[in-house]
Amino acid sequence: MSAHSDLARELFKQGYNCSQSVFAAFCDETGLDTETALKIASSFGGGMGRLREVCGAVTGMFMVAGMKYGYTDASDNKAKTEHYRLIQDLAKQFEKENGSIICRELLGISIKYDNPLSEARNENYYRKRPCAELVEQAARMLDEYILSKRMEEKTMIKIAVASENEMVTEHFGHCANFNVFEVENNQIIKSESIPNPGHKPGFLPNFLNDMGVNVIISGGMGSGAIDIFNEKGIEVIVGASGNAKEAVEAYLQGTLKSTGSVCHEHQHHDKCGK
């Protein structure tokens, strides 16, 4: 049980549909006000407007996931894939616990297009329907995922260093390789050297984003590349020098700070990775 699952069950008992109950229970996570959340989810009860298709508790769960982890860049195939994987994982978990994600199958009825007239909510209704338990369960699944995601974000990061072999390079875009370090609980657990795949405007920031990089360290970098990294939510550390691994260790210890230095030399020729 969790605060969200308790609230989802309570909302359902108040008469809201299954999708509304789950979606509105997470307003503190989605940033929506309750009235807006209830309106958005109002069409999805009863398996999509009592069509008895995908369970409303499941669609409510999906909408919360979309609000928190959805993508907005139509060209970001990595984000699309990751989000669809999350949705499928949530669906599989719900199906594993209940045998289906389809409303009519969960209710044990054969009718596909049900009467649009909503049934009276009384003791008999709650006794014969598993819906209150299903909204509670969907909210619990979401809480478990959100917690695990937060723990993962706190403990695991990937840091790339623009390098010339083992040393931090001055020019991001024309580095020989990227030394990439995977960090868990503030400790380096894995490292690899990735050859620079080629330099053209805007390519490298997107390349590193697709690799899952959270932090980029370099001696210098053009403003265009910095802007793209900022848009992607990737932290940029410039002004670094010396051994790449030592630079990462200094970052983890909190002693490596970005100078904010932008490469102005050759700026118009994109030599620092715009």
What would you note in describing this structure?
With 274 residues, the chain is of the alpha/beta class. The chain folds into two domains: 3-151, no CATH class; 165-269, 2-Layer Sandwich (Nucleotidyltransferase, domain 5). It has 13 helices and six strands. Strands 1, 2, 3, 4, 5 and 6 form a six-stranded mixed sheet that branches. Helix 1 (3-13) runs antiparallel to helix 2, helix 1 (3-13) packs antiparallel against helix 10 (131-155) and helix 6 (56-69) runs parallel beside helix 10 (131-155). The radius of gyration is 24 Å and the shape is elongated. Residues 265-274 have low confidence and may be disordered.
Write the layout of secondary structure elements.
Blueprint (H helix, E strand, L loop, with lengths): L2 H11 L4 H8 L1 H4 L3 H8 L3 H4 L7 H14 L7 H22 L4 H5 L15 H6 L2 H25 E9 L2 E2 L8 E8 L2 E9 L7 H8 L4 E4 L4 H10 L2 E4 L5 H10 L21
Parallel strand pairs: 1-5, 5-6
Antiparallel strand pairs: 1-2, 1-3, 3-4
Helix pairs in contact: 1-2, 1-10, 2-4, 2-6, 2-10, 6-7, 6-10, 11-12
Contiguous low-pLDDT stretches (5 residues minimum) are 265-274
Tell me the series of helices and strands, N- to C-terminal.
HHHHHHHHHHEEEEHEHEH
Tell me the number of structural domains: 2
Strand count, sense and barrel status of the largest sheet are: 6 strands, mixed
* Head-to-tail CA distance between termini: 49 Å
Give the averaged pLDDT, no decimals.
90
What would you call the structural class? Answer: alpha/beta
Total DSSP helices: 13
| C-alpha geometry | elongated
Strand content: 5-15%
User: What's the helical proportion of residues?
Assistant: 40-55%
Total strands? 6
Rg over CA atoms, rounded to whole Å, is: 24 Å
